[in-house]
Amino acid sequence: MRWLALLFTINVVLALWHWSGERQLKAGPKYQVADNVIELSVSPLGSGCLLLGPIFDEGVAQQFDVRLRELNRRVALIKRDREKAPRYWVYYGPFGSYAESLKEHRKFRDEGVDNFIITQEDLYGALSFGVFENIDSAKRMQALMQGRGYRTSIRNIFKFESRWWVEIEAVDRGAISNKINDIQYDLGLALEMREFFCKTVASEKPLP
Length: 208
What we know:
Elements: H1 2-25, E1 30-34, E2 37-40, E3 48-55, H2 58-69, E4 75-83, E5 87-92, H3 98-110, E6 116-117, E7 127-132, H4 135-147, E8 153-157, E9 160-169, H5 173-187, E10 192-197, H6 198-201
Helix pairs in contact: 2-5
């Protein structure tokens, strides 16, 4: 019976040792450190990364990337495109020929209506009556032209804004934070900083 009790005790000790090892390998919890900034506590056995951004100028982003590489850390430059609010183009036409477009252009100009001939391929020869930031202004212009007897159209113009983020390996964040801040100061930057496990940074979606 004693050897059975001893065997049971050994199994319990081994199970507790295995359970303790698994806990050490698990990531720490997430917690809020500032508005829109989530920090992930990093286990001593894990590898931490910092994500810095956004940067709106590609040239500055590349300079920042180069300067961070001088710290002898793994660095990656990440580009994200965000769709901006559309603008609204009010136009009339196109016409059968450029000569007809020119004739209509001069007629509207003589009537005091600002316009120009569009040279964009799919609207070549049409007359533009303006590009507006909101749809209500575009519709008012369309109604004005309709009151003059002209049936105009509205086209949405979509544009994208590029933003760059820089990922840098930072297991010992305290040792490089001051250097990163110095580089930001030199480049006139004041970036948001997030901390993640390195394996999760590259797949972080969506970035702001």
